[in-house]
Amino acid sequence: MLTDAHCRAAKPKEQLYRLNDLRGLYLEVKPNGVKAWRYRFKLGGKGSWFALGDYPTVSLAEARDKCEEARKLVKQGINPVQHRQLERLKREQDSANTFETVAKEWLALRDWEDITKKRRLDMLERVVFPSIGKLPVRDITPAHVLDILTKTVKRGAPTVAAEAKRTMSGIFELAVATLRADNDPVWPVRKALPANKTQHKTALTTAQIGKLLNDFDNHRCGYQVNFCIQLMWWTLARPSEAAEAEWAEFDLDAALWTIPARRMKARREHVVPLPTQAIEMLRRLHAISGDRTHIFPGRDDRNRPMSVHSIRQALKVLGWSGTYSPHGTRTTGSTRLNEMGYRPDAIEAQLAHAEPNSVRRTYNHATYLEERRGMMQAWADKLEIWKRESTGEVSRTQ
């Protein structure tokens, strides 16, 4: 049985030799002076050596502990040499399989439209990847997940937190199924946050509409955000439909905007009449971004459209985030147009709400387009009146 003094005193010889400690542990002394710990074991009737590190970097006590761990593996019929190789390979795979890598793989497997995948990736890049994107997916704990969800809720985005929770759980499900994770760390904290309840905001009053639009006119945000908000209000399009609009969709001479089915929630083409205010704005805008695909190019990547998040950020800066959301434009428009006496069917057609009866849907499209032209011009004119009223001007046209 060796002592530390024996190990220190061992001198190199012309030939390699080994000093026996106990239970298969040896100190191997090489001619070049290197002293290395080795464990001698037998498995399947065949003897082998297992390296445990060099002395004195690995002390005698540490070598005995490592030897005992290897001995336990042998008792289970596991070759410690092969076990070490597998563990190293596993660590290398884990470091390559980061959460971001698995997330993008999961996203590619979804049977979704490209625009839906883009929005989900945008959420991951803003909310999840900054915290755990570079971590091996196997190393992520419930504490990591809870931290992401808590921070998202605290900044006033419970809906985003709910989407992040669902998305992360789906990604971990793939990681577990492909043996890259042992469990779903979302599961233990799935009920840590209060259930998200969809909040349907009430329609803005005419005074609020005027103030909101004036606030944007006076806000020093990029032209994309200001013009996008105006286009939403003039057409009652969904935020993503406006923010991701392409020049090829517009016929300014005919005053029509044809949104293709791939960009519509109901996956059906939608024709939108444009009021004169929108035509004027779009002609001015064409001089700025007419050589681009999108009418509102992104700030960082001019070949991609602006993000709807830019609108939400502007609303937060202006103090409107608790009162109004971009989607609330449609709720407000529907309410006020009904008050103005327009037919509900024409309003629903403008909002692209799905008509389940295909014959009636075709009839509505053919019948209501001209009616909607007049309705949306009157709507745009009203928006101008409400803007002037919010600044104290007295309108002579109302």
UniProtKB/TrEMBL annotation:
Keywords: DNA integration, DNA recombination, DNA-binding. GO terms for molecular function: DNA binding. The keyword DNA-binding applies. It holds the Pfam family Phage_integrase. Residues 199-376 form the Tyr recombinase domain. Residues 97-176 form the Core-binding (CB) domain. This is Integrase. Transmembrane segments: none annotated. It comes from the Bacteria. The keyword DNA-binding applies. InterPro entries: CB, DNA_brk_join_enz, Integrase-like_cat_sf, Integrase_catalytic, Integrase_DNA-bd_sf, Integrase_DNA_bind_dom, Integrase_recombinase_N, Phage_int_M. Belongs to the 'phage' integrase family. GO terms for biological process: DNA integration; DNA recombination. CDD domains: INT_P4_C. SUPFAM superfamilies: DNA breaking-rejoining enzymes.
